[in-house]
Amino acid sequence: MTIVAARKTTACRKAPVSETAKCPTCDGSGEVDRAVRVGRKQRVVGRQTGICLACFGSGQATD
User: Fold this and answer.
1) Distance of alpha carbon 56 from its chain centroid, rounded?
2) Strand-pair category, 31-38 with 43-51
3) How far apart are CA 27 and CA 59, in angstroms?
4) What is the phi-psi region of residue 24: left when phi exceeds 0, alpha when psi lies from -120 to 50, beta otherwise?
5) CA–CA separation, 52 vs 27, rounded Å?
6) Helices (H), 1-63
7) pLDDT-derived band at 51, boundaries 50, 70, 90
8) How many CB atoms lie within 10 A of CB 23?
9) Cα separation of 34 and 47, whole Å?
10) What is the pTM for the complete model shown?
11) Is residue 55's pLDDT more than 80?
12) Three-class SS of residue 47?
């Protein structure tokens, strides 16, 4: 015969989440696009996306 004890319920309160500021360089996306240049005249042949170096891809502004 097993006795099961009733568990006390604890009210779990979450702290209010503060709105973090977006990175001004990538507008919060974490990615920036750059022009791809080719040749001696360095003509633009397309665009390429990469990680934002200001926020390291998080999208949040650093202080």
Assistant:
1) 8
2) antiparallel
3) 7
4) alpha
5) 10
6) none
7) very high
8) 21
9) 6
10) 0.53
11) yes
12) strand
